[in-house]
Amino acid sequence: MTEALERAVVPPVSDADPFTHEALLDPEPLHQALREAGPVVYLSHYDVHALARYEQVHAALVDWQHFESGSGVGLANFRHEKPWRPPSLLLEADPPWHDAPRRVLREILAPPALRRLRETWQTVAEELVDQVLAGGPEFDAFTALAQAFPLRAFPDAVGLGPDGREHLLPYGTMAFNAFGPRNDLVAADAHRVAELSAWVNAQCAREALSDDGFGARIWAAADRGDLTYEQAPLVVRSLLTAGVDTTVHGLAACLYAFATHPGEWQRLRDRPESARTAFDEAVRWQSPVQTFFRTATNDVTLAGTVVPAGTKILMFLGAANRDPDRWHDPDRFDLTRAPSGHVGFGMGLHQCIGQHVARLEAEALLTALANRVERIELTGTPHRHPNNTLRSWASLPVRVHGAQRDRARPTPS
């Protein structure tokens, strides 16, 4: 036993299971209990150390040297278990293997590329909103807007063809479930693993992609030698895995927030340039990505507790984003808040590289809605479906009240 282990603070022990359907659908009570229990809590059910306070979650996220992603960001430990697919070069790799793929994507998703997309996506959003509103004032905002817009806009940007896009969300659901334990949610996906994986892998091939999208630029990076030809399809796969579901559920969180906080919707209509801030606040408030794991590379002391080498920590991003020691009135959705610093997109070296793409999608959709809709209200109980990693939505029934159509359309800056 090391000297650090001998001096270690013994963390409180909890037998809570954060992957039950009850906890996944309504995580806040567990989050509060874990925050109150201590900075580090041992979860006996899975033999992992849990972090639910902002300070410790942030510290672990930025310390990739001691809490690595390369052993997997789920419960499975790649040191001992074979991953169900080739690991992600972005999410499940550390330097130096992580460096080239991230550098290439950072260049491809740089502001000049996004500026070129802004006008296109604004047009797409306005067309979609007009189409939805033409069908009447009541609709499911999850399927009609939060799901429909990213499934059109983002695959277009990547360079996917029009066929088979309905596979993207089930594949993402499956991939994010796989980060948790092998429970009933993973078992429910098992019959489609081969089919969905084969379809997604086929879309990552050069010949399946258009010549002018993000995917083609990834393959061009391989031609220049910035990536290997073996890496290129895995980088495209990273975009397709992480670039759809998280945005879909982030937009749903935004629409839910505005349907339940009418005063904040009016703030957005008065200041449509705050659309990106609204999206970040919704991501903080609802945290589409609830949890991720890391693995201790050696005996690491965190808040006095020693996490033994080779063991897992479970970071509760959603709990950190509602930590009252970090946020004032954290359970409220508030457009006057500065939500920068939330960990909904991660933090540090592995922070979501596509977060600016998601913000641009949110800006386009929310701006189009703000110009056309005076008020959004719920017409029934929203429903979620459980996922081992995502705070997922299934339906969001709303009624909208139209605005005056001669209202000047704002131009996002």
Task: Kindly describe this structure.
The structure is a single chain. By secondary structure, this protein is α+β, with helices and mostly antiparallel strands. Helix content is 46%, strand content 12%. The chain is built from 17 helices and 13 strands. The chain has a six-stranded mixed sheet with strand order 1-2-3-9-6-4. A three-stranded antiparallel sheet has the order 5-13-10. A two-stranded antiparallel ribbon has the order 7-8. A hairpin with a 2-residue loop joins strand 7 (300-302) and strand 8 (305-307). It is globular. The N and C termini lie far apart (58 Å). The model is unreliable at 405-413 (pLDDT under 50).
Quickly list its features:
alpha+beta, 6-stranded mixed beta sheet, 46% helix, globular
- The fraction of residues in strands falls at 5-15%
Q: Order the strands across the largest sheet as they lie in space.
A: 1-2-3-9-6-4
Structural class: alpha+beta
Share of residues in helices: 40-55%
Order of helices and strands: HEHHEEHEHHEHHHHHHHHHEEEEHHEEEE
Mean pLDDT: 94
Largest sheet: 6 strands, mixed
Number of DSSP E strands? 13
Runs in which pLDDT lies below 50 for 5 or more consecutive residues are 405-413
Number of helices: 17
Give the overall shape: globular
- Give the distance, in angstroms, between the N- and C-terminal Cα atoms: 58 Å
Radius of gyration in whole Å, from Cα?
21 Å
